[in-house]
Amino acid sequence: MVEDQGKEIEQPLSTPPPGFGDATLGMGEPYITQAITLPIIDQCQGRAQNIAPQIALPQPIIPRHLFLDDHKDGLRRNDRHEVDEISCEVECLSKKLDKLKRRGTANEEREMLDLERNNSTFRDEILMECVPNNFRIPKLPNYDGIDDPQRHVNKFERIIRQYAISDAQKAQIFSTTLDKAADEWFTSLVPGTLVNYTQLARKFIYNFSSKKKAKRPYTHLFSIQQKEDEPLREFIDRFNTESLMVQDLRMDLVVAVLMNSLQPSSFRSKLSRSPPRSMEELMIMSEKYINEEEFSTMKD
């Protein structure tokens, strides 16, 4: 090192640093620099590798109430209390939700009932008593406003009386048998006017009373005469059909009409000797002589 005016001036490195010896002799300046720096870099990397394992990563913070107690099976006492409170809250919310659902269903049913009340001719007493879902409605005749309404009511009652249903249910079922003109009449009634089945049947018969066949007097039967070549079976069938149109027909009048209408025969003689007391006895008696007549015809 040479002093220049009281200052030390560094001279270029002409000899290798201690420890390199003759290994660097003959090498250029770049190779000398690399030979000096590589050991330093290796030493720094070694320190980094020795330091890295000593650095601890931050651990996640786990809530205290999630730890299991090593000395007990299950959660700690405080933690169980918290779980019970949460379960209770969930149960309360579930009950409230069910209550809201039921309230919504009840509101819908109430709205449907109100709508039905506004459009139905039945009163609330009938609408509230619905026909059970498991009740199989029997096959019933329909009425379209053409035939005799009383005959339709009679057929309906003969079938429906076999089932244990209330008057209100009978009224609802009867309304389903009305078709075409009869159904138009039913829907035209003032809403909420029908209170029971009897009222409905009376209104129905009265409205279609013009379709009823007028009853004839018993004297009408005297016009029915057996023809000379008419079989007894055909005459009895014709007589029965016409007798249904006669009002308040007594049995003594039936016998008198038959005595006047029949051709001379053993059956007519039998009627005069032993007059029947009912239509059933008359049919049994006539059936016997009809069979004899038909057998005789086949024999000939």
Automatic annotation (TrEMBL):
Region spans: Disordered: 1-26
Stretches of the chain forming a coiled coil according to its record: 83-125
Highest taxon in the source lineage: Eukaryota
The protein's name: Retrotransposon gag domain-containing protein
Residue spans of biased composition, Basic and acidic residues class: 1-10
Organism field: Handroanthus impetiginosus
Keyword Coiled coil: yes
Keyword annotations of the record: Coiled coil
Retrotransposon gag domain mapped to chain residues: 172-247
